[in-house]
Amino acid sequence: MNVCLGGTFDLFHKGHMVLLKKAFQVAGPNGFVSIGITSDSIAKKKGGIHSFTERKQTIEQFLSKEGKNQRYSIKVLNDQFGPSIEEDFDAIVVSQETKQTTKEINKKRKNLGKKPLQIVVIPFVLADDSKPISSSRIRKKEIDAQGALLRKE
Q1: Which of 22, 51, 122, 132 is least crowded, fewest Cβ atoms below 10 Å from its Cβ?
Q2: 3-class DSSP state for residue 69?
Q3: What is the pTM of this model?
């Protein structure tokens, strides 16, 4: 199965790990995963985001440790859809935060005569305080990348 997913992937955390692992699980042993990473030009609008190269390297290091060296590609996302509309994918893996975009993706695919993507939504990965782990929370030093609460001094 050919699977796609995308995101900014800044301050790589447990939620990113779960998303990537799920994509490879859905793809299966002979499948392929296409990972889209938000471009620097889009990411800079959010402010304080690491470079595309740094974010890509972090994902590659994680996937190497997971033994996924030959089963994926990484592409630059210059918009919220990336290659998901035009390329031949079977499924898309998203978080609850981005699942709304998949409806628009499938609508655009239908207009192009392409089959809709199977949508796999992973639940939020929660920090120790039962709130979602996110890069913005890590940036604010509320939590670490695993979701442990950090004490404010």
Answers
A1: 51
A2: coil
A3: 0.93
Q: In sequence order, what are the beta bridge partners of 74?
A: 35
Look up the domain containing 92 and give its range.
Answer: 2-124
Tens-digit pLDDT string for the chain (153 aa): 999 999 999 999 999 999 999 999 999 999 999 999 999 998 887 778 999 999 999 999 999 999 987 899 999 999 989 999 999 999 999 999 888 999 999 999 999 999 999 999 999 999 999 999 999 999 999 999 999 999 765
Report how many domains make up the chain.
1
